[in-house]
Amino acid sequence: MAVARPRKQQRLVLALVALAVLAAAGVIAMFALEDTAAYFRAPADIEANPPAPGETFRLGGLVKPGSVGRSDDGLTLLFTVTDMKAETSASYRGLVPDLFREGQGVIATGRLDASGHFEAEQLLAKHDENYMPPEVAKALEGTGHPMDKTAAKGG
Amino acid sequence: MAATDFHALANPLRFQRFATIATPWLVLAGLGFLAVGLFIGLFVAPPDYLQGEVVRILYIHVPSAWFALGGYLGMALSALAARVWRHPLADLSVRAIAPVGALFAFLCLVTGSIWGRPTWGTWWVWDGRLTSMLVLFLLYLGVIALIHLHEDKAKGLKMAGYLAIVGTINLPIIKFSVEWWNTLHQPASIRISGSSIHPEMLTPLLLSAMGFLLLFAGIVLIRMRALIAEQRLEARALRRAARAG
Questions:
Q1: Per the CATH hierarchy, to which homologous superfamily does domain A38-126 belong?
Q2: In the structure, what pLDDT confidence band is assigned to residue B88 with cuts at 50, 70 and 90?
Q3: So what's the pLDDT on residue B231?
Q4: What number is the ipTM of this complex?
Q5: What range defines the domain where residue B221 resides?
Q6: Using a CB-CB distance cutoff of 8 angstroms, which residues of chain B are in contact with residue A125?
Q7: Which of A10, A38, B43, B161 is the most buried (most CB within 10 A)?
Q8: Are B141 and A152 within 8 A, CB to CB?
Q9: pLDDT tens across A27-69, in order?
């Protein structure tokens, strides 16, 4: 009988740990599935289903080539996010990730102002699934298809 | 013929003999592939046009992710076999795989986080891919906890097995998270239609992945042998106690 008590306690502790782990898994899953699990909204989503005024959300898409600039104060980054269907103009003040480039993906957290301009508080760079040496990328650019997915395959 | 061979391995004694011979070969070949793959990946392969040298973490991150998923599938199939056929080796396989798979999932999460900071600009986000991968790691931990939960080992293994089986729902979620939902993580580079990784980078990735696979198998065999030895010791101790009593 003396042996039974610590074993029971041990079982209880283990059961609680297992439950906590499972609960954590469940909560995290719920977290992710919120808003149908989309991490960001594309400009076309925003056009079709405009966010409430002042609502904070994530805007994602490609940085439109030729759209990146600085405002007159030199501190605010100006750029346009496109998903090839719609566009949203955006601005951001702060440190810009290295991979923020024209033609590459971007995810910005912020809100729309009254004129439909997006003011970002956080900027994340999204890269695509293509991996290649710089020379290959340069050669592809020469052919006019810098983002050609099939060109990178098979050399 | 193949089926006969497989059944022969299901005999614990024959399995022991097979595992004793196979283990050193698997570990040596795994270390060899890993060394060559990582050497080419870290020193010979070109940097990426966009990410520069940071891309080299790919050669660890991607194989860890593949075999964290592959290991889970192996564990869940073993659990299923254990429940349906009640074969003692199947339960041993669940116990042997769980911590190894958890380690690979952890390695994938850590290397991914280190990779995300300089490329994306963040250590972590709660997007579909990253979250479902974290859930995989927690599922592994859940299975390990349940194995040790019960005083009655058989009951603990049963519960762990059910969790492992139920958790397989997460595997397609991880795989397709980047297609079903908008995520920060990019879509798959290697598809049936081809690879969007340049061959000079794909070669070391595949070599490293082969190393990870062989090492995974080698470590699982080592663990299974250790678990069999442990069971024998316990059985012997029980017999002695019965004789003494």
A1: Nucleic acid-binding proteins (2.40.50.140)
A2: confident
A3: 87
A4: 0.83
A5: 25-45+54-180+203-240
A6: 119-121
A7: B161
A8: no
A9: 677 666 655 667 899 999 888 888 887 889 999 999 999 999 9
